[in-house]
Design brief:
The complex is a heterodimer of chains A (655) and B (316). Chain A is an alpha+beta fold and 655 residues long. Helices cover 29% and strands 18% of the residues of chain A. In chain A, helix 11 (441-450) packs across helix 12 (496-513) and helix 15 (580-591) runs antiparallel to helix 16 (597-607). Chain B is globular and about 85 Å long. Chain B has a two-stranded antiparallel ribbon. Classes of the chains: A alpha+beta (655), B mainly alpha (316).
Chain lengths: 655, 316
C-alpha cells in the first residue's frame, strides 16, 4: 500500500474518530443517564415503611384507577424459568419460575407471604384458618374454605389434601429428593394417620407433639409447597387409564400415581396441552407454554375461590436472557413488569422514573453471610471460633452500616442474627434491630486482649496466653496460634456483593485487630458439596476452610434453625455448630408449646452467632407505572420473589 | 481427490474423538457427576449414590467415556436433566433458528463485502478507500456484543425503529423469518462485524488480482472496466471468500453465543449459555463436541470448494 497524502490520511482518521464517537455516544447516553440519575438518587436507600411491615427501597408504583381486562407482560430470566408443573416439586426442579407457575395454577393450602411480611395470607389460601392443635399438640385439624372448586367444577375437598399427603409419602419413601422441602422425619412422614370427617375438614395425627407455630409456618405452609390436588382427576397411572381409588390404603398404587404424574410434570413440551394440567384451582390457567424459551401465557380461572380475582385478561410471561435484555424491553415499551432488577443499575432509577418506570424493592426473608467451620484444624481455627469472644470480636469488626452504604448503595438492611431487621416478623426478638455487637473495632481488640491474645494491628495477632482460665485463649489453642483462617466465597462474577462485603470485613479485621483472613474463590457447587462437614467426602476438606460464604438461607416463616445449627454432621449444619444451649432452644421451637420459643431461639443466635452475619440485600423490581397498577401488597409480595399476577391491573388511560 | 477426502475424514474423526476426550475429562474434573446439581443441596449422600448408579456415573471414567462415544456415534448426546429433554432434541429444536440468524447475516455480509472490497481495491488510496478502511477496522476490532449494544441504544431505545430484542413469541425458524423487524438488529450486528472482516480480505485479494497479467490482457482487449471486474476479477478475487465462508460453518450451525444472548434470541448459542449457568453437563459436552466437529467439517468443505472453484489448486 502506498502512502496517501496527509489530508487524505487526516480525513480517514476523522472517519475513524466519528465511528468511535458514535460508540462513545452510545455509552455516554447510558453513562450520562447514570450520572444524572445518580445525582437525583444520591440519597436513595431503604426507608422504614411500617404500614408495609418492612423497609422500602424506592417508591411503590401507585395503585391508580383499575381497568379490568387487557394484557400485562411480565419478564422472567432464562435459567429461572419453570421446568416442572406437578405441585410435588422435586429437588431437581425447584426453581423460582417453577414455584411461581405452580402457585399461579394451584391454590396453596397456606399461601404467603402477606405483602412482604412472612405471614400466611388467608385470602390466597385454601385453608380457612390456622391448624387447630389438640391432644397435646399431637393432633392438628385443618378446615378448608367451603365452596372452593376445581376448574372442572368439582369441589375442592379434604380428600384432595389427603391425596396430596399420600402421594407425597409414597414419593418420599421412593426417594427423599422427590420433594424439595422434605426434612427427614418431618411432614408428611410425621403424619401417622389422617381422617376426613367431612368435606372441608382433615384431622392429622402426628408421631409426636409439634409447636403449633412450627407446624403452621414451617410444616404445612412451607413456602407455598403444600397443595390440595384434584384426587378425582389425577388418580391415574397412565394417560386415559382407569381411576385408582385405593391410593389412601395402598401405598404401591399411590406410588404408581405419583410416578406417572411426576414424569408428566417434567415434560415441558406438554405443559399446556396435557389434560392433567387443565384442572387447576389457582387464579390462572395455563393457555400456552413455549418449549423453546419457556415463555408462557396465563388466563384467568373463573372458578378461582381466592381474592382478589385476576383483573387482567391475560398475563404474558416472557423469557429474557439477562437483566439488560429485560430492561431494554421495558424501556422500549415491550415489557410491563420486570422481576429482578440488576442492583448494579441502581443509579439509573432516577432516569427510569422519568420514563415512567418505577424501581422499588425490599429485603428478603432469610439470613446471609459466612458459616463458621467449628472443625477447621488449620491454625486451630475450629477451637478459636468455638470461643464466643472470638465470634463476638468478628461481629464487632463487621461494619454493616458501612457495607449497606458503600456496597449495597442503601439497598439492604442490617441483619445481626438469623432474623433480619426487616421485613417484620411476629417472631422477631428486639435484638433483630438492636444488635448485641454493633460495629466497634476497639471493643473487638479489647475482647481479644482480655482473652490472652497479643493484638498486632496490621500484623498478625497470636495467642499469648494458652489455657482455659480467665484471660486465656481457651481450650485447644496453643500459645503462638495465629488468628488466621480461610474464607471461601463464590466468584465475584456470581456474587459481587458477597465478595466485597467479606473483603471489607477482612480489611478492617487486618488493620484494626491483626486478624488475617485468606480469601478463596470456589463455585457454588463446590462450596455446598465439598466445604461441608455433613458428608464423608466433605469431611476430607474440613481443614481447608474456616468460613464458607455460599450465600445464606431463605427461611420458612417460622424462623427456627432446626437442621442448620443443631445435629452436627447432618442436614444443613455444614460447619458442625454444636451448641447444646442453642440446640435445646431449637428443640423448644420445634417440639415445645411456648409460642415465643422461636423468638428466644433467634435472640440466642444473635448473641451467640454461629455465622458471620451480613446485611440482607433488597430484591429489586421495575414496573411500567404508566400502564400497570396494584395495591401495595401486590407489589411488596414480589420483594420476597413471589408474584401474584391477580393483583396487577391496567391503569385508566394506559396505552 | 477422493483419497484426500477419506484421509481428511479419518483425521477429522480422530480430532473429534480428541476434542470429546478433552472436553469429557475437563468436565469430569470440574464435576464428576451432575447428581448434586440435579438433586439439589438437600440431597442425602445415599440419594446421590443411587442416582449415580442409576445413570452410570459410578463407573470408571474411561468406561463412561467409551459409553458416551458409543451413544454419540448413534447421534445420542445424552439427556438434559435441567430441561427434561434429550440434548439431540434440543439441538434440533434450536439449530434452525441459529442457522437462520447466522446464515442471513452471512449472505448479507457477502453481498456487501464482495463489491465493497472490489470498490476499495479499484479506488485504492483515495479518500473513500481510507474512510471505508477506517470504518472497517473499527468494526473489525469491536466485539460483536459491543456493536450490538450501540445499535440497541440508537435504533431501539433512542429512535424506536427496531425492537431491542427478539420477542419471546418467536419460537420457530419460520416465525423468525416472517418477522424481519424483530431480527433486524441481531442480523445487522453480525452483518457489520462480518463485512468488516470479509471486505478486508476481499480488498486485499482484489488488489493482488488487479496487478495480474490476465487483468491487463482483458483491459488491452478493450473490455469495459465493468466487464473486466465482473467477468475476470470477481471469480478470482472471491477465492478467499470461499475459505471464510467454510470457516463460518461452525457459527452458522452452532450459533452466535453473544449475539443470541444480547438479543434474547433462542438458538444453540443461548442454549449453551444457559447450560453454563445451570451446570447442564450434557449440553455443555455436546455443544463443545458439536462445535469441534463443525470446525473440522467447515475446513474440509472450504478446501474442497476452493478446489472446485479454482482448477489450478490440487489437493494432496
Amino acid at each position: 500500500m502506498t502512502r496517501g497524502n496527509p489530508i487524505v490520511r487526516a480525513f480517514a482518521i476523522c472517519a475513524l474518530l466519528i465511528v468511535t464517537a458514535l460508540a462513545v455516544a452510545a455509552c455516554g447516553s447510558s453513562s450520562s443517564s447514570g450520572n444524572s440519575s445518580s445525582a437525583k438518587n444520591g440519597n436513595s436507600s431503604n426507608v422504614s415503611a411500617n404500614s408495609l411491615g418492612t423497609t422500602l427501597f424506592g417508591v411503590l408504583p401507585p395503585n391508580g384507577t383499575v381497568v379490568k381486562g387487557g394484557t400485562i407482560t411480565q419478564g422472567q430470566l432464562s435459567g429461572q424459568t419453570p421446568v416442572y408443573i406437578f405441585p410435588i416439586i422435586n429437588s431437581e426442579d425447584v426453581t423460582t419460575g417453577t414455584i411461581s407457575l405452580v402457585s399461579n395454577l394451584y391454590m396453596p393450602l397456606y399461601a404467603g407471604p402477606t405483602g412482604a411480611r412472612p405471614e400466611t395470607d388467608y385470602n390466597l389460601s385454601a385453608a380457612a384458618s390456622a391448624p387447630v392443635a389438640s391432644n397435646g399438640d399431637k393432633t392438628y385439624t385443618i378446615h378448608l374454605k367451603p365452596g372452593l372448586k376445581w376448574s372442572n367444577g368439582q369441589p375442592i375437598t379434604s380428600k384432595d389434601f389427603l391425596f396430596f399427603i399420600d402421594l407425597l409419602k409414597a414419593a418420599i419413601k421412593a426417594s427423599p429428593a422427590n420433594w424439595a422441602q422434605y426434612v427427614p422425619g418431618e411432614f408428611p412422614m410425621s403424619v401417622t394417620s389422617a381422617t376426613t370427617p367431612n368435606a372441608t375438614t382433615i384431622v392429622m395425627n402426628l408421631n409426636k407433639a409439634y409447636n403449633p407455630g412450627f407446624f403452621l409456618n414451617n410444616q404445612v405452609q412451607d413456602t407455598n409447597n403444600v397443595f390440595p390436588l384434584p384426587s378425582q382427576v389425577w388418580n391415574v397411572d397412565s394417560a386415559g387409564g382407569p381411576h385408582i381409588t385405593d391410593w389412601a390404603t395402598n401405598p404401591a398404587d399411590a406410588l404408581k400415581i405419583y410416578t406417572y404424574l411426576a414424569k408428566a410434570g417434567g415434560s415441558v413440551a406438554t405443559f399446556a396441552s396435557n389434560p392433567l394440567w387443565k384442572v387447576v384451582s389457582g387464579p390462572f390457567k395455563l393457555t400456552s407454554f413455549s418449549a423453546t424459551n419457556s415463555s408462557y401465557v396465563l388466563t384467568p380461572n373463573p372458578s378461582y375461590g381466592g381474592t382478589p380475582k385476576p383483573y387482567a385478561n391475560q398475563i404474558d410471561v416472557n423469557t429474557y436472557t439477562g437483566y439488560d435484555a429485560e430492561l431494554n424491553a421495558m424501556k422500549s415499551g415491550g415489557l410491563d413488569i420486570m422481576v429482578g432488577f440488576d442492583p448494579s443499575e441502581i443509579s439509573q432509577t432516577g432516569t427510569l422514573k422519568s420514563e415512567g418506570i418505577d424501581v422499588f424493592g425490599g429485603p428478603s426473608w432469610g439470613w446471609f453471610g459466612g458459616i463458621y467451620n467449628f472443625e477447621d484444624g488449620a491454625n486451630h481455627f475450629g477451637q478459636v471460633i468455638t470461643q464466643l469472644y472470638a465470634r463476638q470480636a468478628l461481629a464487632y469488626l463487621t461494619d454493616q452500616p458501612g457495607i449497606i452504604k458503600g456496597i449495597y448503595k442503601g439497598a439492604a438492611v442490617p441483619a445481626y442474627g438469623p432474623i433480619p431487621s426487616a421485613p417484620t416478623s411476629p417472631y422477631a426478638p428486639p435484638d433483630a434491630t438492636d444488635p448485641a455487637y454493633p460495629y466497634n473495632p476497639a471493643k473487638a481488640v479489647a475482647l481479644l486482649k482480655a482473652n490472652g491474645w497479643k493484638v498486632v494491628p496490621n500484623g498478625q495477632t497470636t495467642c499469648a496466653k494458652a489455657g482455659t482460665g480467665a484471660g486465656e485463649c481457651g481450650a485447644g489453642i496453643p500459645a503462638g496460634t495465629p488468628f488466621k483462617f480461610v474464607w471461601a466465597n463464590q466468584p465475584e462474577s456470581v456474587s459481587s456483593t458477597g465478595v466485597l462485603e467479606s473483603e471489607a470485613l477482612g480489611s478492617i479485621a487486618k488493620q484494626q485487630a491483626g486478624i488475617n483472613i485468606v480469601f478463596q474463590t470456589k463455585t457454588f457447587n463446590f462450596l455446598v458439596s465439598k466445604y461441608t462437614n455433613t458428608s464423608p467426602d466433605g469431611l476430607k476438606q474440613k481443614d481447608d476452610w474456616g468460613v464458607n460464604n455460599y450465600g445464606g438461607l431463605f427461611m420458612d416463616y417460622y424462623p427456627t434453625q432446626d437442621g442448620v445449627w443443631n445435629h452436627p454432621h447432618t442436614g444443613l449444619n455444614t460447619g458442625s455448630a454444636n451448641d447444646p444451649v442453642g440446640a435445646g432452644l431449637i428443640h423448644q421451637s420445634v417440639y415445645g408449646t411456648n409460642p415465643k420459643a422461636v423468638t428466644n431461639e433467634a435472640s440466642y443466635w444473635g448473641t451467640h452467632p454461629p455465622a458471620a452475619f451480613f446485611p440482607d440485600q433488597d430484591y429489586l423490581l421495575a414496573v411500567n407505572s404508566k400502564k400497570v397498577g396494584s395495591v401495595p401488597d401486590g407489589w411488596m409480595v414480589m420483594t420476597q420473589q413471589q408474584w401474584y399476577p391477580q393483583y396487577w391491573h391496567l391503569l385508566k388511560g394506559a396505552s | 481427490m477422493i483419497g484426500y477426502i477419506i484421509r481428511r475424514l479419518i483425521v477429522a474423526l480422530i480430532v473429534t474423538i480428541g476434542i470429546a476426550a478433552i472436553t469429557f475429562a475437563g468436565l469430569h474434573y470440574l464435576q464428576p457427576s451432575p447428581a448434586a446439581t440435579v438433586l439439589g443441596t438437600k440431597a442425602q449422600p445415599a440419594a446421590i449414590a443411587a442416582w449415580n448408579k442409576q445413570h452410570g456415573y459410578d463407573r470408571p471414567e474411561a468406561a463412561q467415556f467409551v459409553s458416551y462415544i458409543g451413544h454419540l456415534a448413534r447421534g445420542d448426546f445424552g439427556y438434559s436433566y435441567k430441561l427434561s429433554q434429550s440434548v439431540a432434541a434440543l439441538f434440533k429444536e434450536n439449530a434452525g433458528r441459529s442457522a437462520y440468524l447466522s446464515g442471513a447475516a452471512l449472505v448479507l455480509a457477502l453481498l456487501i463485502a464482495i463489491p465493497l472490497g472490489i470498490y476499495q481495491a479499484v479506488k485504492r488510496n483515495t479518500i473513500a478507500d481510507y474512510t471505508l478502511s477506517a470504518v472497517n477496522l473499527t468494526l473489525y476490532s469491536m466485539p460483536s456484543f459491543f456493536l450490538g449494544i450501540i445499535l440497541i441504544q440508537f435504533f431501539a431505545l433512542d429512535w424506536h425503529i427496531f425492537p431491542p430484542g427478539v420477542s419471546s413469541s418467536i419460537t420457530t425458524t419460520w416465525g423468525a423469518i416472517t418477522h424481519p423487524l424483530q431480527l433486524a438488529l441481531p442480523i445487522l450486528t453480525l452483518t457489520f462485524i462480518t463485512v468488516a472482516s470479509f471486505s478486508r480480505y476481499m480488498r486485499s485479494s482484489a488488489l493482488d488480482n488487479l496487478g495480474q497479467d490476465y487483468i491487463r490482457l482483458a483491459r488491452a482487449k478493450g473490455l469495459s472496466e465493468r466487464a473486466v471486474l465482473a467477468r475476470h476479477l470477481l471469480r478470482n478475487a472471491c477465492l478467499p471468500m470461499i475459505t471464510l465462508t467454510g470457516l463460518s460453518i461452525p457459527s452458522l450451525v452452532a450459533g452466535n453465543l453473544l449475539i443470541e444472548v444480547l438479543f434474547n434470541y433462542p438458538g444453540l448459542g443461548l442454549l449453551f449459555y444457559n447450560a453454563l449457568g445451570n451446570a447442564d453437563y450434557n449440553i455443555l459436552l455436546g455443544y463443545t463436541i458439536l462445535g469441534g466437529v463443525l470446525t473440522v467439517v467447515g475446513n474440509l468443505i472450504a478446501d474442497i470448494a476452493i478446489t472446485a472453484a479454482d482448477p489450478r489448486i490440487r489437493l494432496n
